[in-house]
Amino acid sequence: MVIKFLKIPSLFFILSLSVFLSCGEESKTVKKRPNILWISVEDISPDLGCYGDPIAHTPTLDKLASNGFMYTNAIANAPVCAPARNAIITGMYPSSLGTLHMRSFSNAMKTSGRIPEEIQLYPEVLRRAGYYCTNNVKEDYNFDLKRDIWDASSNQSHWKNRPDKTTPFFSVFNLTLTHESCINNLEKHQRLTEDLPSELRTDPKSIDVPPYYPDTAEVRTLLARHYDNIAQMDRVVEKLLMELEDAGEKENTIVFFYSDHGTGLPRHKRWLFDTGVKVPFIVYIPEAYQSLYPAAPGSTVDELISFIDLAPTVIDLAGADIPENMQGKVFLGKNKEENPYVYIARGRMDERYDMQRGVRSKQFKYLRYYEPNKPFMQFMNTPEGGPLMTEIRKAEKKGNLNDAGWQMVAKTKPTESLFDLVNDPLELNDLARDPKMKDTLQKMRAVHDRWMLDIMDVGLLPEPIMRTWETDNDQPIYNWIRSQENFYDELLMMSSTEDENILYRGLNHDNEAVRYWAGQGLYNLKTKVKPATLKQLKKTLDDTVINVSISAARALLRQGDSSKEVIKILAEGLEAENEWTRLQTALVLDDFETALKQLVPAAKKSIKQDYNKYVVRVLNRGLNKLYGTSNTVK
Questions:
Q1: For residues 398, 403, 409 and 411, what is the CA-based torsion angle, rounded to 10 degrees?
Q2: I want to staple 58 with a disulfide (CB 3.0 to 4.6 A). Which of 48, 189, 212, 225 is the partner?
Q3: CB–CB of 326/5 below 8 Å?
Q4: Is 57 left (phi over 0), alpha (psi -120 to 50) or beta?
Q5: Residue 343's CB: how many other CB atoms inside 10 A?
Q6: What is the separation of C-alpha 394 from the centre of its chain, rounded to a whole number of angstroms?
Q7: What is residue 585's predicted lDDT score, i.e. its pLDDT?
């Protein structure tokens, strides 16, 4: 399959990269190309005064919005930082590049995600166009970056350090003081907000607790910390904007403000609800560049934009050519294109897999859960270690959650969900089974399927198989999958069907990823399978690819088969060379105590020896459940 991406013509800087004509009615002043300042913050939803939040103390951002443009449908393509930043730096879907898992790359991992060398990142394009590009301070792009893409990238990097004042700059400041850790860690929170005036601090009693959280004093305190962090962040933004003004650059600089995803709390960060992917997004454009205005200054803009649109937009503002690989659209200026839909995705979150995809229009959101038998909220060390999650688990144990809270801790999920975002912004009322919504559901489902096919979403490839293919063929998965004979249609069908006959046939497919999903699909079934299917699953335990065998073993365990043949495969998986195969195995053992009981010595050995901390976390969790203990491995 050949995928063609749109090459968008550059904004009207055709004759020269050195001038920008002001289009004011009376002004004929020649202006230089605009400077561009991005202020990125972590882990906040649109919890700002300008977005109508009565609790927030954000005068700086409120003023920026009143003089600029406040986007009300800005969406992160992933609900967690590293893949979200990957979408920004590449202008591409992480699920297309194989960089969606959190994390696909870290120094501790022996295998890691990578992108094709020919894929251009937006700072490289801007630098070639003559911009001085800086990043302060966080990168975290979720792949092995082996080339210098910035003029400077450190906690000292600043647009002020450019070689001369005539050089246009593109500068990013990443503010981290609203990160989830600054809510959960009291010492860190106090240190970061020690000089926040008392009148800017939030009274916990004034908090409107979301309906899916227990309304306890601890929950209110944590939410108040979140607002205090935001208030302190607003003061830092004020200093960054003041630097522009003091240097005489305010009227030459386009300013973007946004968060990398939603609030760093349960059901927000890591989830595909709007609480996890809808972000504050404000753009200030000086009057000299009013031809770029999407509306009158001070307006709200409801058009859909997503993070893959940032790179092509900023390249277009600089008058440079947008690389063909970029999948986003320009949303400012002459070349803007509106999105009828934006697309969101979730892969592995730390140690847990739970493949989810979503399509969002202005009114509706469609979610597809590819692993519906997994709990809505799987146990993950990082969020479970937070005090708010502790409050949720306590309320769950006592039976004190309300209906929205019980939805959050449900033991399984539907295959698909549909929400009316206009009438149900918190996405509490699933309309997927409402007969009146049948046409909308089918339409959104078809849009999802088309998108998956168009971008060749490699999230359908099990991580150990994907990394093995990359290693064996010495090329990124994005390139490799496009060089193959077309098996992707069958893979997509196998991952979505509930037809046992189709899944049975899939166990004999030539491609191991398709065979894997046949086993996964049989695991997803809520009914007992036919004797012939059980027999074929038994044969699949001897598959030439161990990940397929493990998938079959998992399906057999679901059917009540914990025979020695099943346990033997899991024992082999636990000792596999591929770290993601070991994680796949550990997760099966965590789900099925009947299997873990037979492999306790091997699990304890792995906890002591495995270099992949995610494997250790999962096995430790499984043994804690088995023995009723609570030892935590970080």
A1: 110
A2: 48
A3: yes
A4: beta
A5: 24
A6: 28
A7: 98
Q: Which two tokens stand for residue 231?
A: 């208030």
Structure-token pair, residue 96: 């297309």
Nearest to 345 by CA among 448, 438, 431: 448
Tokens 């979730």 map to which residue?
A: 346
Say which DSSP state 357 is in.
Answer: E
| Helix (H) / strand (E) containing 21 | strand 20-21
Q: Which residue has the tokens 């998938």?
A: 551
The per-residue pLDDT for range 133-151, each reduced to its tens digit, is 999 999 999 999 889 999 9
Helix axes 546-558, 579-591, angle to 10 degrees: 10
DSSP string, 577-622: SSHHHHHHHHHHHHH-HHHHGGGHHHHHHHHHH-S-HHHHHHHHHH
pLDDT mean over 192-196 = 97
Please name the residue that has the structure tokens 């495969």.
Answer: 569
pLDDT > 70: percent of the chain: 93
d(CA 44, CA 276): 9
Q: Does the pLDDT value for residue 28 go beyond 80?
A: no
Contacts of 107 (CB under 8 A, 6+ apart): none
Kindly tell me the number of DSSP H helices and DSSP E strands found in the chain: 25, 16
Q: What is the bridge-based pairing of β-strands 74-75 and 20-21? A: unpaired
Tell the residue number behind the tokens 């897999």, with chain if given: 353
Biggest CA pair distance of the chain: 84
CA-closest candidate to residue 309, choices 6, 625, 629, 514: 6
Q: How far apart are CA 85 and CA 90, in angstroms?
A: 9
- At 112 the pLDDT is 72
Quote the CA–CA distance of 307 and 326 in Å, as a whole number.
11
* DSSP codes, 24-86: -SS---EEPPPEEEEEEESS--S-SGGGT-SS---HHHHHHHHHSEEESSEE-SSSSHHHHHH
State how far the Cα of 364 lies from the Cα of 304, in Å rounded to an integer: 12
> Measured between alpha carbons, how far is 203 from 493 in angstroms, rounded to an integer?
52
Bridge partners for 356 per DSSP: 346, 369
Which CA distances in Å does 407 have to 273, 370, 377, 575? 13, 18, 10, 37
Residues annotated catalytic, as ranges: 81
Q: What is the distance, to the nearest Å, from the Cα of residue 48 to the centroid of all Cα atoms in its chain?
A: 22
> How far, in Å, CA of 557 to CA of 456, rounded?
31
The full 3-state SS of 327-345, as one line of letters, equals: CCCCCCCCCCCCCCCEEEE
Single-letter amino acid code for the residue at 572: E
Cα-flanking dihedrals φ and ψ of residue 624, to 5°? -60, -45
**388 Cβ contact partners less than 8 Å away, ≥ 6 residues apart:** 183, 184, 213, 218, 219, 222, 265, 266
Phi then psi for residue 259, to 5 deg, are: -105, 155
270 near 353, Cβ under 8 Å? Answer: no
